Amino acid sequence: SLAPVTAATVSDHNTWLYFSASGPLLGRTPEVERWRFTFDSPNRFASDSREYAQGTWRSTIGYSLSPNWNIGAGYGYSRTGEPYTRTPYGEHRPFQQLAWTERAGAFTLKGRLRLEERMPDTGDDLGLRLRQQLGVSHPLPLAKPLSWLAWGEVFLNLNTTDYGARQGVDQYRGFAGLGWKWSESMRSEAG
């Protein structure tokens, strides 16, 4: 007879902190201002939020097709450690993206489609990953620079690699938290 298989449930509270800054790349004239830069850095703390587990540092140069649509390309570097992996590693990620923003009353709706070329230290293959993110935010009436926000993102590997990526849906991330708008070009989020 076969013995029953049991698995332990692992519960680990994580905290994600996000910082973003953006602005015109070249100047303040309307035609030049369509070129923009963005720097963002999502950071993740695991082991019940006690340990720095993953950080990404990403820069983008984008062009505003309209007030609501932007195309861009950039480069990111990510460092992942325990407990997300047994062996810490770094990963280079050039990317291209299309993003949109739309207002619906006091709500802001956002979407982004990003193609990443993944090059982790742990393999020789080039991985291709498509990411689709949709989100919503709304300012809190009593504290105008503070807003609640939520988003979801699907990660789809377009190929199988020697470092362990398998073609197909890789992961889904959901986020809910608060955002603080420091200025028109700088914000931070926690959740």
> How do the strands line up in the largest sheet?
1-2-3-4-5-6-7-8-9-10
Number of strands: 10
Q: What would you report as the Rg, rounded to the nearest angstrom? A: 19 Å
How would you sum up the major sheet? 10 strands, antiparallel, barrel
Provide mean pLDDT, rounded. Answer: 90
N to C succession of SSEs: EEEEEEEEEE
**What shape does the CA trace take?**
globular
Helix tally?
0
Residue runs with pLDDT of under 50 for 5 or more positions:
none
- How large is the share of residues in beta strands? over 45%
SSE class: mainly beta
Determine the fraction of residues in helical runs and give it as a percent range: under 10%
Distance between the termini: 47 Å
Please describe what this structure looks like.
By secondary structure, the protein is an all-beta fold. 0% of the residues lie in helices and 67% in strands. It has no helices and ten strands. It has a ten-stranded antiparallel beta barrel with strand order 1-2-3-4-5-6-7-8-9-10. A hairpin with a 2-residue loop joins strand 7 and strand 8.
